TrEMBL record:
<dbReference type="GO" id="GO:0004422">
    <property type="term" value="F:hypoxanthine phosphoribosyltransferase activity"/>
</dbReference>
<keyword id="KW-0479">Metal-binding</keyword>
<keyword id="KW-0328">Glycosyltransferase</keyword>
<keyword id="KW-0660">Purine salvage</keyword>
<protein>
    <recommendedName>
        <fullName>Hypoxanthine phosphoribosyltransferase</fullName>
        <ecNumber>2.4.2.8</ecNumber>
    </recommendedName>
</protein>
<dbReference type="GO" id="GO:0006178">
    <property type="term" value="P:guanine salvage"/>
</dbReference>
<dbReference type="GO" id="GO:0000166">
    <property type="term" value="F:nucleotide binding"/>
</dbReference>
<dbReference type="GO" id="GO:0032263">
    <property type="term" value="P:GMP salvage"/>
</dbReference>
<dbReference type="GO" id="GO:0000287">
    <property type="term" value="F:magnesium ion binding"/>
</dbReference>
<dbReference type="InterPro" id="IPR005904">
    <property type="entry name" value="Hxn_phspho_trans"/>
</dbReference>
<dbReference type="GO" id="GO:0032264">
    <property type="term" value="P:IMP salvage"/>
</dbReference>
<dbReference type="InterPro" id="IPR000836">
    <property type="entry name" value="PRTase_dom"/>
</dbReference>
<dbReference type="GO" id="GO:0005829">
    <property type="term" value="C:cytosol"/>
</dbReference>
<comment type="pathway">
    <text>Purine metabolism; IMP biosynthesis via salvage pathway; IMP from hypoxanthine: step 1/1.</text>
</comment>
<keyword id="KW-0808">Transferase</keyword>
<keyword id="KW-0460">Magnesium</keyword>
<dbReference type="Pfam" id="PF00156">
    <property type="entry name" value="Pribosyltran"/>
</dbReference>
Length: 181
C-alpha cells in the first residue's frame, strides 16, 4: 500500500523480511570476521539507530558500541554541508572499528566522519551500511558490508526519514514516480 508523508507519496520497496534477512547475514559475517577480537561499533545517529539495534542483537562475541551524530539532509536533498552535533566519547586508538550507517548516498557524511576518526589513530576501520546508492556517490567511500545496492531515488523507512517522518516504517518505501535508475 502506498503512503503519504508531508507532501509526498511513497510506494513499497524493500519488505521487512528481506531487510531482516540481510541484517542477519551481515551480523553473521561480522561475527566471523571479528572472532576473538572486541570490535567497537560506531553508529551514525539518527538514521542508523534501527540497523544498529537489529544488527548488534545478532552479533556473537564481545563488542562495544558508541554513537556519533551528523546531519546533512534537509527534505529529499543533501545540503552538502555535514554538521556534527554529537562527537566521539570513547578512545578509538588501536581499536578495531566498524562504522554503522543506514545509507551511503553522496558519501559526504562518511567522508567527514572518516577524517575525524583517522585523527584518533584507530587500529582498523571497516564500514557496514544497510543501503548504498552507487550512482549517487560523490566521494570514493567503499563499504565492507552492504545490505542492498539501490538506484538514486529517495527512500524512507527502517530509520530513514523524510523531514523527520517515516523512520518507524518497518518496510522501506521509495518515492512515487522514481527513476529506478
Ligand atoms: O552519503 P550522504 O549523502 O552523506 O547521506 C547519508 C547520510 O544521510 C542520512 O543522514 P541525515 O543527514 O539525513 O541525518 P539523520 O541520520 O539524522 O536522518 C543518513 O542517515 C546518512 O548518515
Ligand atoms: O534516500 C534517502 N532517504 C532518507 N534519508 C537519506 N539520507 C541520504 N539518502 C537518503
Amino acid at each position: 500500500m502506498n503512503i503519504s508523508l508531508h507532501d509526498k507519496r511513497f510506494e513499497p520497496y524493500i519488505k521487512e523480511v528481506a531487510i531482516q534477512n540481510r541484517v542477519n547475514a551481515i551480523a553473521e559475517q561480522i561475527s566471523d570476521d571479528y572472532k576473538g577480537k572486541r570490535p567497537l561499533f560506531i553508529s551514525m545517529l539518527n538514521g542508523a539507530f534501527w540497523f544498529t539495534a537489529d544488527l548488534l542483537r545478532n552479533i556473537v562475541g564481545e563488542f562495544e558500541v558508541s554513537f556519533v551524530k551528523f546531519k546533512s539532509y534537509h527534505g529529499t536533498q543533501s545540503s552538502g554541508e555535514v554538521v556534527q552535533s554529537l562527537g566521539l566519547d570513547i578512545d578509538v586508538k588501536d581499536r578495531d572499528i566498524v562504522v554503522l550507517e543506514d545509507i551511503i548516498d553522496t558519501g559526504g557524511t562518511l567522508k567527514v566522519f572518516l577524517e575525524v576518526l583517522s585523527q584518533h589513530n584507530p587500529g582498523s576501520v571497516k564500514i557496514a551500511s544497510l543501503l548504498i546508492k552507487p550512482g549517487a556517490l560523490k566521494y570514493p567511500i567503499k563499504a565492507d558490508y552492504v545490505g542492498f545496492e539501490i538506484p538514486n531515488d529517495f527512500i524512507v523507512g527502517y530509520g530513514l526519514d523524510y523531514d523527520g517522518l517515516g523512520r518507524n516504517l518497518r518496510d522501506i518505501y521509495v518515492i512515487e514516480n522514481s527513476s529506478g535508475s
